[in-house]
Design brief:
Helix 1 packs antiparallel against helix 7 and helix 4 packs across helix 7. The radius of gyration is 18 Å and the shape is elongated. It has 7 helices and no strands. 81% of the residues lie in helices and 0% in strands. With 129 residues, it is mainly alpha-helical.
Length: 129
């Protein structure tokens, strides 16, 4: 018989997996349907231009592309200082698109950190083998 805490751990793990899946779907949606807009508004940013040549229709490539753009936007000050992101491009990117990318990538970062903590906690308590 499983204890209540083990059942809670299992249910929270399932919710975490569902949230990670949902965030991934949002990122893929943006990568497929807003890639043209991203390339248009970030056309002077070297990091985005270099990805344009390698971007195909496969989901993994699209996911990596939108994750790269999200990282540039999350760490925008550092990206602008290093020259990977153009400051004027960053300002002209529509606020709604920027918010969607930042929110989805931020959610993935937070959910990944929670997942790592959950795995460590599960291993320490013997709930995961």
């Amino acid at each position: 018989m499983r204890s209540d805490i083990e059942i809670l751990f299992l249910l929270s793990g399932l919710v975490l997996i569902a949230l990670i899946f949902l965030s991934s779907l949002i990122l893929l949606f943006v990568a497929y349907f807003f890639a043209r807009d991203i390339f248009e508004y970030l056309s002077n940013s070297p990091a985005v231009i270099s990805r344009k040549r390698t971007l195909g229709w496969e989901p993994i490539g699209r996911f990596l592309f939108i994750s790269n753009v999200g990282t540039l936007l999350i760490f925008s000050r550092k990206s602008i200082r290093s020259g990977e992101l153009d400051a004027k491009d960053y300002e002209t990117l529509p606020a709604g698109l920027r918010r969607i990318i930042l929110f989805s990538n931020g959610m993935m970062l937070v959910l990944s950190a929670i997942a790592i903590v959950g795995v460590v906690l599960g291993k320490v308590n013997g709930w995961l083998s």
